[in-house]
Structures are given as C-alpha cells and as structure tokens.
Amino acid sequence: MAVAKKIAYNVVVSTASKILSTVLALVAISFITRYLGTNGFGDYAFVLTFLSFFAAAADLGLYYIATREISRQGADEEKIIGNIFTLRMFSALATLVVSPLIVWFLPYPFEVKEGIVIVVASFLFSSSYQVLNGVFQKNLAMDKVAVGEFVGKVVQVLIVIGAVHYKLSFSWIISSILINMIVSFLIVYVWAQQYTRIRLRFDWEYWKFVMRDSVPMGIASIVSIIYFKADTLILYNIKTSSEVGIYGAAYKVLENITFFPAMIAGLVMPIMAHSIFSDKKKFVDISNKTFRVFMILVVPLVVGTLFLADGVIRIIGGAGFAAAGDVLRVLVFAIAFIFFGQFFNTILVVGNMQKRLMWISAIAAIFNVGLNLIFIPAYSYTAAAWTSVATELLVVILTYWSVAKNLDYLPSYRKSFRILAAGAFMAFFLYIFKGANFFFLAISSAAIYLIFLWIFDAIESEEIASLISKKGIQEYEELP
What we know:
84% helix; 16 helices; 0% strand
C-alpha cells in the first residue's frame, strides 16, 4: 500500500473507530442511567472512580516510557516491550490482590464493594494492552488499537442492553467493563505480534533503568487521579448518591471525548521523541501543528456544549438528570483545558521532564482537594465542577511554564484568531436558531464551523496529514 494511502487508511479507520466507540459508550451510559436512576448511577460512577485510583497505582508511567523508548533511534523493541509488559503485568497483579483487601473494610454497600473488585480485575487486561499501544504508536498503526477497543465496546453495550432487558443486578452492569477489557486485550495482543515478539522478560538491570524514569511518572499519575477524581469521592461521602449521579452523568459525557487529545498526542509522540533533541526545527513544527489542531477541536466543543448541553443530557440520561445540563456547561471548560494539558504533558515526557510532572500534579492535587473540601458541603456538584475547571487551568499554566523554561518552547498562535472567528460564527448560528431541533443544530453548527475554517484558511489538510505521516518517522530512522 502506498504511503499516502496507508496514512489515509490509518487516520480514517482510527478516527471512525474511536468516534463509533464513543457513540457506543454514550449509548451504554444512556441505558445505565435510565435503568439505575440517579442513585444507582451515582454508585456506578463511584465504582469507576475507585478503578481510576487503583489503575493509577499500578500504572507506574510505563505506557509513556514504553512509547518514548521504542521511538528512540536504534531501540531494541523486543527487549523494551518484553520487559515493560512484564513489569506492568506484575504491578497489575499486585493491585488485583491488594485492592479487595482494602475495599472490603470500607463502609460501603456490598454491591458497591463487589463492583469495585470486578472493575479492578478488568484493569489487569486494560493495563496490559495499554503498554502494547506503544508498539502501534511507533508503527503508526493505532487504527488496530481503535478497532480492538471498538469491538470490546460493542460487546460491553450488548451485555448492558441484555442486563437492562432481563433486569439483572448491578454487578452485571459492572461486569460488562471486565468483558470489554478482556476482548480488547486479546485483539490488541494478537495484532501486536505482527510488529514484535512479545514475551515475558526479566532483565533486572533494565527494570532498574525503567523504574528510575517511570516511578516519578507513576507518582504523577496517582496524584493526577487524586485531583481528577477526588470530587466524586468527596461528593459520595459528604452528599448523596443522587448528587454523584447528576455530576457523573455530566462528567461521563465529556470524559468520553478526551480520547481525541490522547489519540493525537499518541500519533505525534514518536516523532516528538525522535526530534526534540536531534532536530529542534522539526520538533517545533510538529508541536505547533498539534497545538493548532487542539485549538480547532476545543473551540466547537466549548461553543456547542454551551448551547446544546440540555439536549445532550436529555438524550443520555433522560428527564431525571436535567440538572446535569448546567454542570456540563461548566465542565466543558475543564475538558478544554485537559486538551492543552495533554499537549504540554506530552512535551515534558519526551523531554525527559517527568519529575517536573510529579510536582505539578502534587500542586494541582492539593489545590483541588482543598477547594472541594471547602466548597462541596455548601455548593455540591456545582462547586465540584468549577473546582475541576480551576484545577485544569492551573495544570495548563504550570506545564506551559515548565515547557517554556526547561525546553525553550512556546506554541505558535498563528491562525488562532481565525479559528476563534469560525467559532464565533458557529455561536451566532446556535443563538439565532436556539429553539430548533437538537440534531439539526448539532449537525448544522458543525458544518458552519467547518465552512468558516475553510473560508478563513485556518488550517490546511497537509498540516494534519504531516502530523501522522509515516515519512516523518522514516526520516529519523535514517539519521546517523
């Protein structure tokens, strides 16, 4: 297959699969919210919050280290992946053994405890295939990972629909996540074998080298989860399951959108890792284009959510979750900042600045938990939403400053005004026709935005293609 066709195929399949997976995730949420109600969905959101904490504890930053290391010139891919895959398996198994012992002594209902144990078991499989993602990122074949995740999501949705239809228990809803992860892992594992042999390896010296870099990243991940999920924990323990359900419904909608920055960062990370120290001009060029793509995605996300939040919540949760509309309007700014936080985080990782991330995450966690403890008792999920916005903004400011100071990079704002202008026309359209059908507004406003991006020449198709061009990797493989 010609390079251009391979690029197009990879991008189309990866993006389509990710979008379809997101749609399926939202379908699953719509069934779950209606079936469980605000109280039951609050328990569901709380269980998934525990998964995030245990997952972060076992992560150790190995995913990013694996991607970075196999992207270096002359990397021994089989050795790197074999050792890091083994490390991840052992950390996941340790989490699987310890977490039930911790959970069983917590003062929560039995079905909540049971649900936590089930989702922690699912992490054994999700964590393993996440490490393998580095293989696909290096070979610019993330379309395969996206397809694997899509198939797993289809299985999950079918189980959820079956559980709702036959009125099965809460544990069946949670078990759908476990089965999803098993299916996705098996597909990704089989496909990864096409690029490198994956075997358990026990190179103790290499483990020491990896742990030296990964432990700060792991600590940063744990601390990041504290500020990312502390609001749900505090809400659940101070307020009611119903309030957690309303907040969780809004958060779940936007949480499923965050695959975009992660996907784009994954595509460009190998090229950044190749070029950050060997070809600064190429690194700056790729980084600026990535920054511009993030802006193009963030602007319509914010504008569309501000006008269409109530309709989104109506479709996802039904009338019982109407209060989540205003929460969604606040949280969209947090997600917008997460896009740019992901951008600067990626640069810090490829620049070997993971220790800096650890301190940034610690500051953000203290800031977040403090504000939540102060304001949630009085303002409930509204305080949690605004605290999330403030925290993610703080992360962007600190990572921006760290990248500028330590890696001498500042993003270019070329064409930013044109992107904002296209967003303004989108907002004007939504305001004029705000009483129209939801689907008409969603589709038409997106079309308006794209049309004005084209009119204003905000970005060229060649710029997007160059971000994920396999030619870029090949150029660096040929360097002496």
